[in-house]
Amino acid sequence: MTQTSSVREDRQLGVKELLAFIGMALGMFLAVLNIQIVGSSFDEIKAGLAAGPEEVSWVLTSALIAEVIMIPMSGWLSRLMSTRWLFTGCALGFGAASIGCALATSIEQMIIFRAAQGFMGGGLAPMIWAAIYISFPRRYQNYLLAIVSLLGTSAVALGPSLGGWISEEASWPWLFYFSVPFAILSALMVFFFVDFDRPDWSIAEEIDLPGILLMATFFMCLLVVLEEGRREDWFASRLIVVLSITSAISGVLFVWRELTCSKPLIDLRVFGNFNFSVGAFYVAVFGAGMFVPLYLLPLFLSRIIGLNTWQIGSMLVVLGVTMMVSGFFMPLLMRFFSLRTIAIVGFTMMSLGTWYQAQLNFNTGFAELLLPQVLRGAATQMCFLSMIGLAVGSLPEHQVKAGTALFQLTMRLGAAVCVTVANNYLFIQTRRHYHEIRESIAVGDPIAKETLGLLEASNSRALGDSPWALMASLQRYAAIGEREAMILAFNEVTTVVALCIAATLIFMPLIGRGRRPSTGPV
């Protein structure tokens, strides 16, 4: 790779460099935001395209599969094409795919364009992290890292609110049209102001095609198994068995190939750096701890409380606001405390916030969710920034691009796998709790008899003495039992996540303290 940097540590940032950073940060923000605003508006997309619930889930899955294929390739492609050309191409491709999604007239078209959107978006985030470490003076890096982390995490938290507002005030195609002008602006800013490195087209002759095919097969099969496993009754389905075996074999062959190939697509040797390996493990834990509760809470508010997309977004806005506020204090914390200390405090707060979120009930409202969101919002910045500093900050310059790509990949996979596991565990536990509730109600139970009497009395006002009044009362009683079973399951899954985060803290003393950042202007 031909780099234009070695970076002089005593120089000031110029206007051109700041504009380059803003352009790359905007593109990264769009890529993260688009996943969240679309994920919160499935019902509107399903209605608009006349798709079933199983089909519309592929709107998210197709983008995720393409994204996790592109993320590890971004390091090699940026060396081949340079940061400037690859980022510009990805931003323009993202905008074009967004237009395709907005104009889609069938679920098949939507899935294809969403895959293209995910593929292009997957190249945007890793490049800005690599650029910060390679091309900017160290004394400015923590401020730039805090800004990018602030944008990325805020996009995750504010996406549902924005998606709900767009869906309510306009229509679902505007979820995608919204991104187009900003994607064009990002591409133009990067094209005119980014000049960090030069293309190295000579490495195209050594392209690792077997590695690309093995990686794509591994991730595609793995994510399809996770997405379709429960619907197909897991290993009772021949398709799931075949895909699982294919994923396992291609995964092993991919690792072997990348470790033995002289010019690998992905430099897995970065895992030989102890701090990077531990940091990658903890960012996978962070991905699970961040995204599983963030997936479960809107689901609870929708299914149990009955809120619409806009109302759910309003309930979660505290999380995004806390992320933004805490982001402004992160450079100061990173200046006076070691990264390991920040990480310990951050993961402790995330565990506590997740634990408090596991106290849901039918009367849960904004006030009950305030403390969990504040704790989790503040913890998000502390966890992510400390881990990327400990992991990528410890790598030599020639491994930074591969390291940032793998770092992003482990977070995305940690989130995707754990969200799928949590969703299946939620389904299983809901059924178990419902059966336990049903079996605990004995014939002639006074509480059950009193409840049925109240339900029958309320129904009789509408149905009179019709025999359907009793049937309606029994159905409502069963629905109450199912609701309570789901509440128990939601709390149980969230509690498990909190305990798992807390359990990983025992390994924290193993990692280095992390370099204390060079001081710069505050």
Write a brief structural summary:
This protein has 522 residues and is mainly α.
Task: Provide a descriptive summary of the structure in words.
This protein starts with a strand and ends in an 18-residue tail after the last helix. The chain has helices at 15-39, 42-49, 53-56, 58-81, 83-103, 107-121, 124-135, 138-169, 174-177, 180-193, 209-228, 238-260, 274-305, 309-336, 339-357, 366-391, 400-440, 446-463, 468-504; strands at residues 2-3, 197-198. It has a two-stranded antiparallel sheet with strand order 1-2. Helix content is 77%, strand content 1%.
N-to-C SSE string, H for helix and E for strand: EHHHHHHHHHHEHHHHHHHHH
Radius of gyration: 25 Å
In what order do the strands lie side by side in the largest sheet? 1-2
Number of strands: 2
Q: What share of the residues does DSSP label as strand, in percent? A: under 5%
Q: Whole-number average pLDDT?
A: 80
Number of helices: 19
Largest sheet: 2 strands, antiparallel
Termini separation comes to: 34 Å
| Share in helix | over 70%
Which blocks of ≥5 consecutive residues have pLDDT under 50? 1-6, 515-522
**Computed structural class:** mainly alpha
Principal-axes geometry comes out as: globular
